[in-house]
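The protein record quoted for completeness.
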Amino acid sequence: FVTYEMITVDEKVEGREILMLMGVYMLVTLAILIAGIVGKRLVMWRTKPGRYPVWGVYFFRWWLARQLTSFIHLNRMQGTPLGPFVLRLLGAKVGKRVYFSGFEAGAVDLVEIGDDVTLGGKLSIANAEVIGDELVIGKVAIGRDAYIGTSCALGHDTVVGEGAELSDLTALSPGMRVGAFEHWDGSPGHRIGTVDPASWPQHAPAPSAFVQTMQTVYYALMVLLMPALSLLPIFPAFYLFDRYDTVLQELIGVDYHWFLPVLTWPTAMLMMLGTVLLVAAIRWIVLPSAPAGTKSIHSGFAVRKWTVGLASDVMLDSLSSLFSTIYMRVWYRLMGAKIGKDTEIATNFAGRYDTIEIGDHCFVADEVVLGDEDVRRGWMTSGHVSTGSRVFIGNDSVLPPGTAIPDGALIGIKSKPPSGQPMLPNETRFGSPPILLPGRQRFDDADIAKTFQPPAWRRALRAVFELFSASMPTMMFITLGTFAAEYVLFPALGKAESWAEFAPLFIATCVACSFILAGVVLAVKWLMMGVYRPGNHGLWSWWALRTEAMTTLYWGTAGALLLNALRGTPMLPWAMRLFGAKVGKGVFLDSTDITEFDCVDIGDHAAINATSNLQTHLFEDRVMKVGRIEIGQGTAISALTTVLYDTRIGDYARLGNLTIVMKGEAIPAHTQWAGAPAQPAAA
C-alpha cells in the first residue's frame, strides 16, 4: 500500500510502475518466507520431546518458533517438491517422492516421513499440545508407502507403519501404533483390515531431470508471483479513487478525509469485483477444462490445476468475506461449478470446479472438503461430487471423489458419507465412521419466508447488506491505511535520513493499525449485535444477516490482523473477554474459532488446543440455532475437536483428537473421551 502511494504520487500509473509494485511484493513474500525458516531455526534449532511448564521459557520458545513457521504458508506449496524441501529446512525428516496437501504440526521438526508417502489435506499432526499445566511434545513417524487421508489427526508419539493406510477423518490418540500394511478408520481410529501392496498401481513415470527442475522453478516462481498478481485489482480501483476524491472535494467544498468511507467503500467493492474477475480469468485461461479422471502429478494438466488452486487460495485472502453470502454462488458459477438455486456456500472449492455439482436450496458449511483428489504413487484421481436438493453438509465434512448425496440428506459436522453403499433420500449420517441417525431435531415448521422461500424484499435487503458487509474489511483497511500513510508515514519518510530511522515508526504504525481495526470490529460487535443469547433464527432473518456479517468482519479483520497472532498467549483470553466470552484465569487458548462470544464460558486453566473449536450454532433446515457452551476448569480439548452448543464439559475432563461432543451432551468431570461422536476413552 505504501509502495503504491509512493509510485503514484504523480497521479499517473504506468506499466513499469505496476511491474515495480509486483516486484517489491515478490521480494517481500520471499523475505518473509526466509525470515520464517531462519527465525524458526534460530529460536529452536530442534524441538526436544518432553513435558514443559506452560508459560515457561521453553514454552515461549516453542510458541515463537511456531509463529515464525506460520510465515511460510506451507499450504501454498502443497503437491509440489517445494513443500518437502521446506519441511527439511525446518528440521523435519522427509523422504523422497512425498506428496502432501497441507498440514499443521505442533512441532514440525519432530515429524519423520518415509519415501513415497501421501498426506491428505487438512492433516493435523498434534505432536505438541497443552494438557493441564504442561506442554506435551512428542515425535510422529510415518513409514514409507503410507497413505493418510483427508482431515486426519495424529497425536504425539504415534507411529504409522510401512504401507499402512488411514481413511479420511481418522484419529490416532497419543502413543498409538499402526502396524505395517494395516488399514485404519474412524475416530477413535481402529483397524478395519489390511492393505494389499499388489493392488497398488505402478509408480507414475518420473519426467527427466530437466523437466523436474523446470517444474520446480515454475512452482517457486508462482508461489512468489501469485500474491503479487492479486495486487492487480488495486490499480483500477485506486485510479478511480484518486480521481474522484478531488472532484467530490471541489463539489462539496470539504476536505475528502472527512468523508473518506464514501470513497473507500466503492473502491473496496471495485477491488473485490476485480479480484473475482482476475481469478476467473486465470481459471479459464490456464485450465479451461478439468474433467474427472486419473493423471500423473508430473503432467502438464496437474501443474495447471495446481496453478488454478493456488490462485483460488491466494485470492481468497481478499475474497474470504464472500463466504456465506449470495455472491459466493455467483462467483463459483463464474468459475464453472454447477450451483443450484438459493444454495448457500461457505467453503473453498480449491480449483475443483468442473467436477462439483450442488443442487437447489443446499447448505455447504465452513471448511467442507468436496472431492479432494486422491493421490497414490504419483497418480492423481479426481471424480464428480454431486448433491440433490435441500442437502445439508456440516462443517469440516469430507466428501471423497465419486460421492453422490440424494435429496434432503444431511452429513453432520466432521462426518463423511458411508463407503460402499449409497445414501437414501432424507437420510442423516454423522461421525467417523458415519452412523445412521434414525431421527434428529427438525424445524420443518419454521417460517418459510425466513428459510427456503424469502420474499423479494428480503432478497433485495440481503443483496444490498451483504454488498456492504462483504466489502467492509477492505474498506476499513483502505480508510485507515490512507490516514496512516498521509498523516504519519509520508511526513516521517520525508524527514528521515535513513531507512533505519524510518523503520521503527513504520512498525509501530502497522501495529497501531492492527489494534485500531480490531477495536473497530469490537465496537461493531457491541453496536450491531449486543449480547448473544440462545435462540433460533431463520437464515434470511435480519438477525442472521447481521451475525453472519459480524462473523466475517471478526475473522477477516480482527482475526487476520491481530487475534491469530495472539493464539497461545495470555493476551487472547483478554481479547475474548472484551468480545463477551467468559474466560477464566490461566486459560491456554490456541483457537480464535468462536462466533457467538457471549455464549461461551471457559473455566480456569482450561486448554483449548489448535484446530479445535467451540461451535455455538448450527444451520440445519436453514434455521440458525444458537446455544451455550460451558467448559469446566482444567479441561483439555485436543486437535480437530468440536464442542457443539448446549453442552457442558466437566472439570478436568479431557477430549481426545477429532472428538465431537454432540448438542445437549454433558461430559462428566475427571473423565476422558474420544471419538466422533464422543465416547469414553481409556485413561
Observations:
- The radius of gyration is 25 Å.
- The domain at 44-199 is CATH 2.160.10.10 (UDP N-Acetylglucosamine Acyltransferase; domain 1).
- The chain has a mean pLDDT of 92.
